[in-house]
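Teaching assistant's notes for section 4

Start the section by putting this record on the projector. Ask students to predict, before seeing the second block, whether Early nodulin-93-like will look compact or extended. Collect guesses on the board.
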Amino acid sequence: MAKNMAQSPFEKASIDKLAMAKRCSHEGAKAGAKAAVVATIATAIPTLASVRMLPWARANLNPTAQALIISTVAGMAYFIVADKTILATAKRNSSFNQVARHEA
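Reveal the predicted structure now:
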């Protein structure tokens, strides 16, 4: 029954904002995941190579430390890129920005 009722302009704007927020966060999550994969590969290669080649790293970096280094870099890359992507997408789709474009 509620689906057949006409939506007020405020309800429609609210639904549009929610859909846009969901799309922004989805784009951010995808970009963050891609960055995390790249960061994992870029960190794992030198970390594992240094453990094999450098005596200090072999003595001091056990497998837990190696995993911690790699996962920390991947996590940081994910959150930094996801945050920047969400903010850029929100800024691009902002209603304030669209009003300024229409006035110019």
